[in-house]
Amino acid sequence: MINVDTTKLLADLTKTVLEDPQPDQFLAHITNKTLASLDARGAILGVIEREGFLDLQGAYGYAQTMVEPFMRIPLWTPMPITDAARTGDISIYKSPAEMVNAYPHLSEFGKAEAGVTVSAPIKYRNTVIGAIGFTSITAPQDGFEISETTQGVLALCGLYIRNLLSNKNRSEKDYSSSMKSLSPRQKQIINLFKEDLTTDQMAERLKYSSSTIKQDIIKIYSVFGVNSRSAVVELAQKAGLS
Fold first, then answer.
1. Bridge partners of 84?
2. How many Cβ atoms sit within 10 Å of the Cβ of residue 148?
3. Please, are residues 112 and 77 in contact by the beta-carbon 8 Å criterion?
4. CATH code, 6-172
5. Is 20 left (phi over 0), alpha (psi -120 to 50) or beta?
6. What is the mean pLDDT of the chain?
7. What is the per-residue pLDDT for 1?
């Protein structure tokens, strides 16, 4: 188990997840805050975006030369993190020699300073969607794999990955077709979002009732799949709205 105040640890991690940090920033928090009691030295995060592959989304505490060869790993490649994603089990190797004995082809990692290698599957709604691995000086206590603290941390990791993939899909989506479904007035409203006007002020500017403008805003949110004006403006600009 992780020897910390569980409530504070999970509260701090929840706050970080809700801030939608970049993967490297998220892993920095995991290493320096969540796993501080284990004297963690680094962490990596893998996501299953394509069937049969684990794509590394970020790393913290490792040399780039160690990470670059493993940016996309077939799930059947023997490695602690891929095995965790494939089997759904947590693995703990208490020394570099023990890890290299299980994975001889990873002999270059046997020279690492950290003594413990831990890999764990990350699930969302009971489906494995990725895995996290970390190295530390101190080994977790017995029962680490089944402790409520560990399960809580992994659940928050699952939420983070879900948000990460959702944001990525949204940023890659082509919204040009969405723009075509909007009326000229609704496009005017999007432009007025930039001026930070109230609904009543927009209604007055466009010479329509406030209720009409409200219905238009609801339609705009529905078309773009977001619930904030700033998000609409960002996506509309990507779609070519001047």
1. none
2. 10
3. no
4. 3.30.450.40
5. left
6. 89
7. 46
The hierarchical CATH code for the domain 176-238 is 1.10.10.10
Q: Where are the domains of the chain?
A: 6-172, 176-238
CA-closest candidate to residue 89, choices 23, 150, 165, 9: 150
CA distances from 40 to 24, 29, 62, 107, 224 (A): 15, 11, 12, 21, 41
Length of the chain in residues, anyone? 242
Question: How far from 7 is each of 18, 82, 149, 166, 176, CA to CA, in Å?
Answer: 16, 30, 9, 27, 45
Q: Whose CA is closest to 145, among 84, 102, 99?
A: 84
User: CA-CA distance, 53 to 81, in Å (whole number)?
Assistant: 12
Residue type at 62 in one-letter notation? Y
CA 12 vs CA 24, 45, 119, 213: distances in Å? 17, 19, 22, 40
Count of alpha carbons within 13 Å of 19, Cβ hemisphere only? 12
pTM: 0.69
**pLDDT tens figures, 197-235:** 999 999 999 999 999 999 999 889 888 877 788 888 888
The Cβ of residue 191 has, within 10 Å, a number of other Cβ atoms equal to 12
What would the two tokens of residue 35 be? 């796993």
The Cα 172–Cα 169 span in angstroms is 5
Asked whether the CA dihedral 180, 184, 186, 188 is positive or negative, the reply is positive
- Alpha-carbon distance of 71 to 80, in angstroms, equals 15
Among 19-28, 103-112, 160-169, the range of highest mean pLDDT = 19-28
